[in-house]
Amino acid sequence: MYLRPAHRLLIGLALVAAAAVAIYLWRGPAVIDEAGQAATSLWRKASAPPPPSAEEQQRSQARRAATDSGPGPARTAAVPRKCQLNGQTIYTDGACPDGSQEQMVPENLSVIPR
Questions:
Q1: Is residue 71 part of a domain?
Q2: Which residues lie within the region annotated Disordered (predicted)?
Q3: Which residue has the higher pLDDT, 55 or 109?
Q4: Above 60 in pLDDT, residue 104?
């Protein structure tokens, strides 16, 4: 029995569609959840600020060293520090709490006094 090319194409498409439906019924919700998590992860990565340059790190360390030298008479404002603790970001003008990790503070961060 001879099948026309159009019929072979339609049969092939029907088989592909049937396989896609079977895979969706078998693993659909899990695959969709994984795709959503992957998209969220990629979005966070793409929208994250770039890491600080070596020059910014040196300036930040110099500022920290200047404020750690002790309170002086000309000291006007404390240098803010950014700390990561259990997935939360904490900004403080003192030392980071125990168990937290200090992060780089952006140069253009402005602080409003209380």
A1: no
A2: 40-114
A3: 55
A4: yes
